[in-house]
User: Fold this.
Amino acid sequence: MATATEVTPNTVVVEETSPTTRRITITIPADAVNARIETSFGALQLETAVPGFRKGKAPRSLLEKRFGGAVLQETRSALVGDAYSKAIEEKSIRPVTDPELTKESMELALERGKPFTFSVDIEVVPNFDVPSVEGLSIKKPVAEVGAEHIDQEILRQRYRWGTPNRIEEPLQHLDRMIGRAEVRIEGADDIFFETEQALVVVPAIEDEGKGQLLGLLIDDLDKALLGKVAGDTVEVSTVGPEYHEREEVRGKKLTIKYTIRAAERITPAEVSALVEKFGLGTEEIFREQIKFALEQRRDGEQLAAQREQIFEWLLDQVHFDLPPKLSERQVSRSIARQRLDLLQRGLDENTVEQRLAELRGQSEEQARSRLRLFFILARLAEQYGVQVTEQEVAGRIHQIAQSQNMRPDQVRQQLSRTGAINDVALQIREQKTADRILEKANVSDVSADDWNKDVQSRAEEKAKVLAKGKSDAKPGKSSK
Assistant:
């Protein structure tokens, strides 16, 4: 029996409504309800000044008449929040989404002298087993940095640090422009999004016409832009990716109206100017530094390729149901982690945006795979006791800053504004987890050419499987 200073504990019932969802029903006993209501009104009496009464001296009956409904509502919310927090801790429940009160619970009122029972629905971390990961066969692509690679990188640097010149003549491949963009969603009267500072690059010839506009991958963007001049307006249509960060555009037909305000063409910098800019003395030293940077990038790509093999193996081996609601935040965080990875590899901003546009357009199965991998790596990180320090986060920010020719404090400010600091830590944790597995793997070297052929072959095979899946899913198609 509870003493005068104690209250009866809550009753908690957990129902498994699916492998990844739970309904938690909590009963708060009457004595706990009464105690919380008394505390709320006591605080109100001390803090409220009522005309005609000194502060803290207004009659309780008057306060209850004036503020009773609001106080009971606030008390109800506080009781529900506290009871839910205690329940998931006591029952070792690991939610992945915020709780949702059932419709019946939303309509319940809090009353003195009566227990309060409510139910919430939540999605939880999937339950699955991870097989032994020791002794995996992993291939390490090996490539030498040759003179042709150095020449290509020098050309890229010449354009990167070249001089932009305003042009009035018709646009060509790789010309850049700034302009006003308006996005409309089919069926809506108002403009969904608009900006005066939309930067667009005419796709390179090797991009086969595809380019990104406002973070969306547009087919035949080159056809819309080539030959246009400043002052022209173009209009392109696309369909919002099913796993775009903005839920409002997913699967919707979008029309983008783009007015070119100014266009520019880059005059590549002279090699001698780059040598002087970086204070390297001679072109020979400049080439040596370029080679060193390319070797570092190659080593990073090698490690990324090995990690990717581990990720693919885990996805092939571990299967489980995902929480049914793939929330906007989860998808956004996946894209944010991809951005960090690409920036860390030293890719320029335009290339990063192009890759991200491609990722947003991926299939549902690929998006679900990324989410499954998140849960698998989180489980393995716990198993291995992988921790991430603030020093590691600072080091990663420094790497990104160095690759993008920015100051670390500028990168940190950008990440803080977008809430991506936690994504940096998450990316480090996932990579450290993969590296733990890699330490126990059987690694064999393969030539870069053989590796690229293998990657291409696997990509084609995946494409066939995905295409078959879409075909089988078409309405009216029966299987025999």
Summary: The chain has three domains: 11-123, 137-154+271-472, 163-267.
